[in-house]
Amino acid sequence: MSKTQSLGLGTAAIGRPKYINIRQQNNAEQFSLAKFRERGLALLESAYEKGIRYFDTAPGYGMAEQLLINWLKEKQDPTIEVATKWGYTYVANFDKYATVHEVKEHSSNKLNEQWKQSQKLLPFLTTYQIHSATLETGVLENQEVLLRLAELKNEHNLKIGLSTTGANQLEILKKALAVEVDGVQLFEVFQITYNVFDQTAVSAIRRITSQNKRVVIKEALANGRVFPNPKYSNYSEAYLQLSKLAEKYNVGIDAIALRFCLDSVPVYKLLSGASLELHLEGNLKTNAFQLEEKEVSLLRNLQVEPEKYWKERKLLGWN
Length: 319
Ligand SMILES: NC(=O)c1ccc[n+]([C@@H]2O[C@H](COP(=O)([O-])OP(=O)(O)OC[C@H]3O[C@@H](n4cnc5c(N)ncnc54)[C@H](OP(=O)(O)O)[C@@H]3O)[C@@H](O)[C@H]2O)c1
Description:
Blueprint: E1 7-10, H1 12-15, H2 33-49, E2 54-56, H3 64-75, E3 81-86, E4 88-90, E5 102-104, H4 108-118, E6 125-130, H5 143-156, E7 159-163, H6 169-177, E8 180-181, E9 184-185, E10 187-193, H7 202-210, E11 214-218, H8 236-249, H9 253-264, E12 269-272, H10 277-284, H11 293-300, H12 306-314
Parallel strand pairs: 1-2, 1-12, 2-3, 3-6, 6-7, 7-10, 10-11, 11-12
Antiparallel strand pairs: 4-5, 8-9
The structure holds NADP nicotinamide-adenine-dinucleotide phosphate (NAP).
């Protein structure tokens, strides 16, 4: 098995020029759609060359899903696995002054509308997820949606999944695990936020994996908050610990934070959200070493209250 197979590439940041993060250098270069597309394709190719075979996308990620559709036609490699989602529509039209970037709608109309496009990812598409399932949209109780998902699962041999975001991830996971269609659990893939600062899902991740279902980790770098930043003095002790380990293993902080996820919970895939080649290379260094048990324990202590974590996350801008 290739050493890089535990990492997948999340395509949110290559599909739209602005994304929720703490990016500090604002790109002064004039935005060109053609160049952006070219860079996105180059990153897909580079990830593939470096051994990545799992790609996560969504119609809400601007041009990302279409980029993947085009790229897959050229690649034709059956070892590639793609996961997409439905439920968010990208509305910013690549305008850097846009104030609204995406609109959420968890209706069966939206599901059917987005499926028309997403099915072009077949036969590489293995996983179809509800994008950011919440209690508020009632999606986990919407019988029309649940039945349609079960139908797609059977027709196309898909795994049905969902992604969760927010301080109430556990509640959503519990509810999702209880959803059955014709006496069979519907959800088999759970895309969860987990990182050194938010470790609330640890027991849920173990439980899900023990039921032979897949856990995919997202936001493993806490949207960039794991990197030393004077804005987050609350993490100064964490920055010290992460930097010491980075120095010891001769890698960046990103590789340490990603490695923590792999060494502390059982996961199917861990998503890298890199949009730059340099960052992707840094992220992949996580495959070069393993943390000692005592180091994992040390990093376990870096977790913060989920409410605080998600309050901070809500304040992050689109950069
Ligand atoms: N389902 C959902 O609701 C949902 C929500 C969020 C994410 N996701 C999925 O998860 C994937 C990954 O999550 P994410 O992008 O939000 O979070 P992340 O991996 O926690 O953070 C990505 C951020 O870290 C930066 N970064 C990465 N490596 C770096 C390095 N070596 N040095 C400095 N900065 C570095 C990236 O910058 P650059 O962009 O400059 O490389 C980006 O701003 C997404 O692409 C998407 O597929 C899903």
